[in-house]
Amino acid sequence: MEPTAAAELFREEALSLGFVRVGFTPVGPVERHDVYQAWLARGYAGEMGYLARDAQLRSDPRALFAGARTVVTVALSYAHPDPIDVPADRLAGGPRGRIARYARGADYHFVLKNQLRALAAAVARRLGRAIAFQACVDTAPVLEREAAQAGGLGFIAKNTLLIAPGAGSYLVLGELLTDVECAPAAAIAPRCGQCRACLDACPTGAFVDAYTLDARRCISYLTIELTGAIPRELRPLVGDHVFGCDVCQEVCPFNASPSNSTAKNDAIASNDLAVEDAAASNSPATLTPRPGYGRPALRRLLGLGAAQFRKWQKQSALRRIHRPQLLRNACVALGNTGDGDDLPSLAHALDEPHALARAHAAWAIGRIALRHPECRAAAEALLAARRALEEDPAVRAELDDAFVD
Length: 405
Ligand code: B12
Ligand code: SF4
Ligand code: SF4
Fold this sequence. Notes:
Elements: H1 3-16, E1 21-26, H2 33-41, H3 49-53, E2 70-77, E3 98-99, H4 108-127, E4 133-136, H5 144-150, E5 155-156, E6 162-163, E7 171-178, H6 197-201, E8 207-209, E9 212-213, H7 219-225, H8 235-238, E10 241-243, H9 247-250, H10 267-271, H11 275-280, H12 298-302, H13 306-313, H14 323-337, H15 343-349, H16 355-371, H17 376-389, H18 393-401
Parallel strand pairs: 3-10
Antiparallel strand pairs: 1-2, 2-7, 4-7, 5-6, 8-9
The structure holds cobalamin and iron/sulfur cluster (2 copies).
Cobalamin binds next to α2, α5, β7 and α7.
């Protein structure tokens, strides 16, 4: 089949499978691989060592699949209405955390990969022959935004995300490397213009400049990728985020369509504690948010035991973190938003077997006492009791510094 017809065939099948955009680029060396190398060299990747380990593989997709001729790039949208617009302190069950939109439904890695395989199968059926392909999503060593931009899917924006005009940036990206030759799609020129809303809105000042992110300051990195302690100076800036962050997308005018905007959701009050039920009823075939996963009650998160935690993160992108990281994140968010009513939950976290949780619980108790002086005596008593037992040097240091502003 000639390349233009092949591209049309892929496009038709991709759109009928639910992808919102599809693009095509010939397989070859990545244009800005040097930018990637320079980013790594500046240390912006932090603890994400895998990015450096397979840096060379990311220079050319042929390293993954020698017979590939085309990179078919696809985007799946997770632009669902957001239940976040009720102040945390007015919600039943205490203060709420915030989970990034992409992680509120089924794990996109599985959903996308299945859809990419279905796409290859559908095209093979229409062609009447088997096609060679490799499906890649996120963890594969592919510079996905570069591929998507080269394939005409959208443009790389100042917040470093890929924006598809008309669909915004609440997209997850995937690629099908295939031996079928498809006509390349026309590139879409960058359209940020003079806007810099995302750069100014970032709570932690993570953008070194337009198009360059220091991941070590990004809340997404701090709450998901980082396995150790969140640097003290960044904790207050993390706010109520417990898994990822969408701020640099929320302020973007390209996401301002009705379906992307903040919407009151009356499910928020009723289902906030239905964590296990929601996890059990989750369907892996969709990125639709599961009830209760947008703004979870922080005390509830702190109270999840090991088995409940596994259920909570089952079949979702939340599986990227371990329980001590969730406890760490929930402590930081409670430290930033809680009051005296939250001290019992934090006292419980102060007795956790994981030092990471104890260290951040100590910090959170101190922060609450600093904001609510009436809690100071209770906070001091909790910390002193723990201090008498504590053997971990990092936790002892946090206990000692808990009231340092
Ligand atoms: C590591 C990683 C992270 C890191 C670092 C992010 C970053 N900006 O680099 C952290 C943990 C912080 C992170 C956070 C998030 N991530 Co992430 N992440 C990745 C991953 C695995 C690699 C990205 C990477 O290589 N970064 C290194 C930098 C140097 O690469 P880059 O930003 O792509 O830069 C290239 C271009 O921008 C270009 N470039 C450089 N300068 C310039 C200048 C101009 C003018 C232009 C046009 C281009 C350009 O050259 C660079 C080299 O090729 C990709 C998946 C993948 N395999 O690609 C997902 C991915 C980028 N992440 C994704 C998502 C959804 C997120 C979050 C929104 C999740 C959340 N809600 O918390 C946030 C967004 C934060 C942000 N503003 O980027 C999606 C993005 C989808 C989209 N629409 O773009 C991806 C593609 C995963 C997927 N399969 O869908 N992520
Ligand atoms: S995801 Fe949040 S912390 Fe990270 S760059 Fe965007 S606004 Fe900043
Ligand atoms: S907020 Fe403005 S500068 Fe940032 S990505 Fe969107 S359009 Fe570009």
